[in-house]
Automatic annotation (TrEMBL):
<dbReference type="Pfam" id="PF13377">
    <property type="entry name" value="Peripla_BP_3"/>
</dbReference>
<keyword id="KW-0805">Transcription regulation</keyword>
<keyword id="KW-0238">DNA-binding</keyword>
<dbReference type="Pfam" id="PF00356">
    <property type="entry name" value="LacI"/>
</dbReference>
<keyword id="KW-0804">Transcription</keyword>
<protein>
    <submittedName>
        <fullName>LacI family transcriptional regulator</fullName>
    </submittedName>
</protein>
<feature type="domain" description="HTH cro/C1-type">
    <location>
        <begin position="2"/>
        <end position="47"/>
    </location>
</feature>
<dbReference type="InterPro" id="IPR001387">
    <property type="entry name" value="Cro/C1-type_HTH"/>
</dbReference>
<dbReference type="InterPro" id="IPR028082">
    <property type="entry name" value="Peripla_BP_I"/>
</dbReference>
<dbReference type="GO" id="GO:0003700">
    <property type="term" value="F:DNA-binding transcription factor activity"/>
</dbReference>
<dbReference type="InterPro" id="IPR000843">
    <property type="entry name" value="HTH_LacI"/>
</dbReference>
<dbReference type="GO" id="GO:0000976">
    <property type="term" value="F:transcription cis-regulatory region binding"/>
</dbReference>
<feature type="domain" description="HTH lacI-type">
    <location>
        <begin position="3"/>
        <end position="57"/>
    </location>
</feature>
<dbReference type="InterPro" id="IPR010982">
    <property type="entry name" value="Lambda_DNA-bd_dom_sf"/>
</dbReference>
<dbReference type="InterPro" id="IPR046335">
    <property type="entry name" value="LacI/GalR-like_sensor"/>
</dbReference>
Amino acid sequence: MKLTIKDIAKMAGVSPGTVSKIINQTGSIGPRTKEKVLKIIEETGYQPSFSAKALATKKSNLIGLIYAGEIHVEFNHPFFNEVINSFKNAIGKLGYDILVFSNSNFSKGKEDYMARCKHFQLDGCIIIAGDNIESAIYELDKSSIPCVGVDIELTGPRSSYVTTDNRKVSSKVVEHYYLHSVKEVAFIGGPSDSVISNIRKEGFLDTVRQLGMTVQDNWIQYGDYFEGSGYEAMNHILDGGSIPKGVFAASDMMALGALKAAKERGYSVPEDIKIIGCDDVEACRYSDPPLSTVKQDKEKMGKLAAYMLHDMINEHAEPNSILVDPELVIRNTCISSVKENVARPSL
């Protein structure tokens, strides 16, 4: 038979409240009483229930993991996988467990993250964002529950966010092309209503204008982050007549699709067209030629999210938000020759 806190209290000749205080190290209990109760707990192997500990400490040590909105890639996608693994490892060392929330009712409008947070007595939430974010997320953002967003700007009283500097993602690509005498450039984005993709597009176009480069209307295309859409977008670009010298795709999978389309149409990469993707997925290293990309520091993002959330839960710091610098990784889809790669000094 499983022992309860009342059973331990009866064995020790004290009240259940005294046992609770000793277990949770609260209140002022005499050393003799404390020693007696702890000895009984050790001898019986008693384990306090989750609800009993949460009630006594007003902390569950549980973090909600929410995949918000419409996620256009699988959860085993390297971006999600690496960010969440990094977060999980860091938050686990800080003493928390993770409860995953499904938004399977997204299309039915029945999400109520607030109610679920209260039901499970969550200490805080990490929110991984897709597109078309449901209103329930913003209700949670406005609440007193500590939240950290990844790729979503949260502005609530106990909220913060961490995201890659997506404007810098694009500016690094355009600047690289400019420094290597590539002036005619195209962009393949995610869905036209994708917040992250549109930030990248704005950063791309702004840098193109600042550097006096050329981009034609037909050279701006949209996909869904998957390889097939990159393939179709590249074919639309090539059907337009004028051919760009450089292409930036907002995901590596679309860039790989663009690479396939260019090669099928008889163009040499990188001699005729240079291609850069984004994310640095494993496949980039093994494409032919290996794909240049912009690497997001997914491990750093996960760790930052964990420590930021822990600090807010324990009121060690005010909510703050962080933009993480991306890293340009140049491989063979951009390097025609050693001479070209050192054509101009860095900005």
